[in-house]
Amino acid sequence: MTQSVFKTVIARYKTIQTNQHQWIQPEFKVPQFDLVWNRDYSLNQDCFSVNTLNGRIKLAYCSQGMEKYFDKEIYKFGTAKLVYRHKKYFLHIPVTFEVSECANSDICNVVGIDRGINFVVTTYNSKHQSGFVSGKTIKQKRGHYKNLRKQLQQVRTPSSRKRLKAIGQRENRWMQDINHQVSKALVENNPEHTLFAEKIKLKNRYVSVSWAFYDLEQKLIYKAIQHHDKVIKVNPAYTSQCCPMCGHTEKANRNKKIHLFCCKNCGYKSNDDRIGAMNLYRMGIDYLVPDTVTAE
Q: What domains are defined for the chain?
């Protein structure tokens, strides 16, 4: 157990040096303890066994939803972290398993994903179907949190700083839950072996290039891998200005104020975010073409 404490502190120092490239003393504000699988702890569907200073103890726990992870031929438990938060103990257990990579030749569906502000995601797939996830409520709530933080930062009292931290944690939990729902819906609403082609808008840094957009991207990637799907990043240049019907590209094609795309060449009209998703879908198709040609 003592060795585990040493290793936890050393690992924290290594993380700080890798990420920040300078010497900073780590702080452990929340009690925690790393547990090595089959040495410090073991787990089955009925009992959690763990080492303590007073010997090994066995505890009952809620195993609902964990049944599949006890298949030892597929899943492997790793070093767990026991933490104490909100007057309760939580055990964080990493689980590893192998997932076969989705080959381009297996892909049967392509989805273009345009991510923005008015619509968190706009999609267009191989069945020529469009999907929209409104970002109006999210935009309003994040704006509310931003203004509230600004007000608390101006107060500069111990209670305001404490309140500021609590609000930040609450916003993070809420946004992570939204991202889980959106990424899960994207994966489950499409068949296995789907190719997702996405990009991120670079304007409005607080909303678009914040950790929330990155978090959604990461959640989509790992959920897609588990579902035998694939996610690629494509060049976003002119995806909102190019007509998906005739290919005419012009800045005047898009009216940002009313979110309308109208091609000056062929007259095709649609929502500007949908146009972006359609062009990303086409880029996904183009990504697969070289492999198709080679196979032929």
A: 2-96 (no CATH), 104-295 (3.30.420.140)
How far does CA 241 lie from the centroid of its chain? 28
SS3 label, residue 277: helix
9 CB-near residues (< 8 Å, 6+ apart) = 26
Where b means 16+ CB within 10 Å and e means fewer, 250-285 reads eeebbeeeebebbbeeeeeebbbbbbbbbbbbbbbe
In residues, how long is the chain?
296
- Give me the torsion for CA of 288, 291, 292, 296, rounded to 10°: 170
3 Ramachandran zone, left/alpha/beta (phi>0; psi -120 to 50): alpha
Per-residue pLDDT of the chain (296 residues; tens, 9 = 90+): 888 888 888 988 888 888 777 788 888 877 888 899 999 999 888 889 998 889 999 988 888 888 888 888 889 999 998 888 878 888 899 999 888 888 888 999 999 999 888 888 999 999 999 999 998 888 888 888 889 888 888 888 888 888 888 888 888 889 999 999 999 999 999 999 999 999 865 554 444 446 778 889 899 999 999 899 999 988 888 898 999 999 999 999 999 889 899 999 999 999 999 999 999 999 999 998 865 433 33
Rg (CA), the chain: 24
Residue 186 tokens, joined: 């994207």
Token pair of 29 as six digits: 């504000």
Nearest 10 degrees: CA dihedral of 114, 119, 121, 124?
-60
